[in-house]
Amino acid sequence: MRFISTRGGEQDISSSKAIINGISKDGGLYVPRNFPNIFKDFKDKTSLTYEEIAFKVIKEYFTDFNDEEIKLAINGAYEKRFKVELKNNFLELYHGPTSAFKDAALLFLPQIMGLAKKKLNLDEEIVILAATSGDTGKAALEGFKDIDGFRVMVYYPKDGVSPVQEMQMLTQEGNNLRVVGIRGNFDDAQRGVKDIFGDNEFKEKLIQNKFLLSSANSINIGRLIPQIVYYFYGYLQLVNKQKIKFGDKINVVVPTGNFGNILASYYAKEMGLPIAKFICASNENNVLSDFFKKGIYDKRRELILTESPSMDILVSSNLERLLFEASGRDCNEIKNLMKDLSENGIYKVNEKIINGLKDFYGNYATSEEVYKAISDVYNKEGYLIDTHTAVAYAVLNKYISETRDETPYLIASTASPYKFPRSILGALGLELSGIDDFEVIEKLYNFSKVKVPFNLKGLNNKEVIHNFICECNELKKPLLDFLGIIND
Ligand SMILES: *Cc1c(COP(=O)(O)O)cnc(C)c1O
Q1: Is 102 a pocket residue for ligand 1 (Cβ < 6 Å)?
Q2: Which long-range contacts (CB under 8 A, 24 or more apart) does 63-67 make?
Q3: Which ligand 1 atom is nearest residue 415's CA?
């Protein structure tokens, strides 16, 4: 398998290169030359394990590596650390070390990056820089923990993440990791990291010291491919539970931010998985919802901070890959659209693309609707969902009442309710005042008796390992400290 850029500048890139580069030199995203259709191979094999399905899917794309290497990478990522469960129509993707679905991608990426690094004979140590609003940083730390040849530096806004998220990061063990709180907000953190990536002189200095900067953000093809796996897995579970027959169509419902998760379901369909509709659920940052209604992507609006923070985003980077397919792989058109977006903050797609997007439905849910979804699902089914999953559930209901579509569906359930316990307790109408987040977890458990994930239990009593703070315009200093480079 070879990879090409959505903007046409690169046409023949190996999987190792695509994984290490992350983003194409022309600013585009790497996509596979074609999508192998493997769905029929799963007939009469519906009881395959998650790891076995992962092997079948992943080996089609990362062909620089042999079967043994791919199997080792998969086991290294998931064994005893991550699993997916289907509860009714909710595909729970959060049974991993960080209790959110990003583990599916970020446990695998370091494994495949390690292989790619060897394949390309890179002898520099790779330093992953991440600015995080909470979830990605922790997932990257867990994924890269003690992986040879890699270090991770995470910057987070000191007063801008939840206490649970902060403790998850500050108590992180592993001898190749560092977490630094910055005095500023998430945008400051992100800008600081971008500045470092753009500073050639600084990067040269790092290279002289045998360090190569890289990122683990969600446009990396090494993160996207492993996300295809759970759509196959979820589908086969629906077959096993006799909710559908092999070959029946389903709809998928995905709470969407950067468009990685829902794009993975689209890639699954390209590989033959029978998906009828892609229901793209947004929170009040409803850029995508407007886009699927009008064909106009307009990011010129204020970012709203919601209770589904991992979806608070105005530019959904992975949408570029969908537009590429919908346009019939017209890289010139994609280049124009992305130029419009960066210069004017808006673009309008042509008829051909609109036609290519007809299986997508977009809508959004307000805070009130999210609260109502959480309490409805709990009161009707005794089942707890988190705020992100609740966005999906609320949008699904809008879709069904508009269309009366009775196709069976899968809802991507992206985080444990215990990750956002305050919102959940509020939605259920319980008293919140005067108790901290860890007491809120306790209270939610006593109320619901839903098990608290192992990694969140006792978190408040764990030892703080990372005790570093910096000003938002001085991000290089703690990085040099961490790498042991003397700053002259
Ligand atoms: C990242 C995230 C999302 C959004 O996923 P994308 O792939 O960015 O669209 C949804 N829910 C949770 C809990 C997340 O962490």
Answers
A1: yes
A2: 63/1, 63/15, 64/14, 64/15, 64/16, 64/115, 64/116, 64/119, 65/15, 65/112, 65/115, 65/119
A3: 13
Residue 340: count other Cβ atoms within 10 Å of its Cβ: 14
135 lines ligand 1 (CB under 6 A): yes
Strands 177-183 and 250-255: unpaired
Q: Is the pLDDT of residue 468 over 90?
A: yes
- Find out whether the beta carbon of 377 lies less than 6 Å from any atom of ligand 1: no
Span from the CA of 317 to the centroid of ligand 1 (angstroms): 12
* pLDDT tens-digit map of 369-388: 999 999 999 999 999 999 99
pLDDT at 194 over 90: no
User: Residue holding tokens 């620089």?
Assistant: 64
140-153, pLDDT tens digit by residue? 999 999 999 999 99
Beta carbon of 99 within 6 Å of any ligand 1 atom? no
Could you give the 3-state DSSP secondary structure of residue 171? coil
Helices (H), 43-107: 50-58, 67-78, 102-106
User: Domain 222-421 classified CATH 3.40.50.1100?
Assistant: yes
pLDDT for residue 488 is more than 70: no
Closest to 388 measured CA to CA, from 408, 364, 409, 407: 364
For 428-445, what is the HEC assignment?
CCCCCCCCCHHHHHHHHH
Mean pLDDT, residues 405-421:
96
Q: Using CA positions, which residue lies closest to atom 14 of ligand 1?
A: 310
Residue given tokens 């419902």 in the structure block? 253
The CB density around residue 14, as the number of other CB atoms within 10 Å, is 17
Cα 483 to averaged position of ligand 1 atoms, centre (Å)? 31
pTM, full prediction: 0.95
Give the whole-angstrom CA distance, residue 337 versus residue 349. Answer: 8
Contact by Cβ (8 Å): 103, 310: no
Expressed in angstroms and rounded, the spacing between residue 255 Cα and the centre of ligand 1 is 7
Question: DSSP letters along 115-134, please?
Answer: HHHHHTT--SEEEEEEE-SS
Give burial (CB, 10 Å; 0-12/13-18/19+) of 120: middle
Separation of alpha carbons 390 and 376, rounded Å: 10
d(CA 144, CA 152): 7
